[in-house]
Amino acid sequence: MKFTKLSLIAALAVSSAVAGGDIAPVEPAPEPVVEASPWSFSGDIKFFYSTTDSDTVDLFAQDSAMGQAAVSGDVSYSFASTWKANFGMTGIATLGLDDNVVSGVWLYAGANASNDPANLTSVGDALWVDTANITGTAFDGKATFILGRTELDTPLAFTETWNIANNTFDAAVAMINPIENLTLVGGYIYDGNGNAERISTMSGGFTGDKGYFPIAGVEEGAWTVAVIGKFSGITAQAWYYDVIDVAQAVWLQADGEFSGFTIGAQYAQIDPTDLGTAMGADLSNYESSAYAAKIGYTMGAFDLWAAYSSVDDGGLVSIANTATMVGGAGWGGGAAQSKLYTEAWWSYGFVSLPGADSFAVAGSYKVSDSLKLTAQYTSEADGLMTLATLGTDTANYTVDMNELTLLAETSYYGVDVAIAYIYGDFTTNSTDLVAADEGTYTNNTLQAYITYKF
Question: How far apart are CA 134 and CA 79, in angstroms?
């Protein structure tokens, strides 16, 4: 954008042709034209810490703690009026804390994110390109395009923001607004660098290159189309996914706001028949479906909501982020995050399990412009945990989960700080689980999130 400033003092000239001649004002000279820079830069510095007790480990012990630092930088260059080229990198490190303070990390970085199983560890340093794309608009802003590595936010393939670094995708996306309040979306998601597990020893990892959906050698990506409309205070959306050679999926959702009240409804379905074909098995009878409802009320600084969800017990796939179901997580393992209203604050993956019935209630109070307090309770029952239980009595292989999170968030001199206390208990009646034997397990977790944005 160009702009010109006029001097506040007009220049005066004295006629030299006639002594005592008139003093005539001269048009003010414009200052030099200042061209807005096409370059922009942003980023953040983060440090996350978490400690969890158990029957054998106390809070703040090295074996109970994980910690990590991350630095992200993004640069953009504007060209052709409405287009930008964007590039970003993220680096993560333990800052040497793994020597005597922590034993785990938030994000897998072992062996520089090598896919060599012999060199996989959870603690290490890594640097990778998480953004490399071109974005822009056309047709008077009625069309928006993204091409390259980017964050995405769709119901069944999305960037999860709980981690110290966000997962991204190699994708091509187009969003068209043919008429006011109506958006058509079409996209192809080829690859993703997501990993559902917080501490992973699995090939691929967050910075790996195993493909969008690295299971059974399937790496062809996914197509998605959607229609999003807004009318009479209601936002409705319908999504269809074709995860190539894996599954067909549908997500329907409607949310409305009326006089301080918010209501919402969700329905999702995932059919893994294509995966069965690729594996030489018949999975046509293991379709997953779920529904959820939510109601909330906002009054001044208070915000309250409650939600319920139910997933059928005959499915194979969790109703969760298909892009972070790595090597079985989410396929009866339940590690990927879900967009269901009832998703827990920290214990992701349980409410989306086949057979799970869940409810959640939460409230927040904005004490001031710089302090917000939040409490959330989530309860899940009867989630199916193991693939080995398919076709058997699922009541014998289930897990129940309860979680209470208390959260305080504040900002101080440009630094965002969040402190969380999390109580969790997990009960299973299955002796067939890899993760835990039959019984009830409880733990307390303390977490600190520190972020500085620049």
Answer: 10
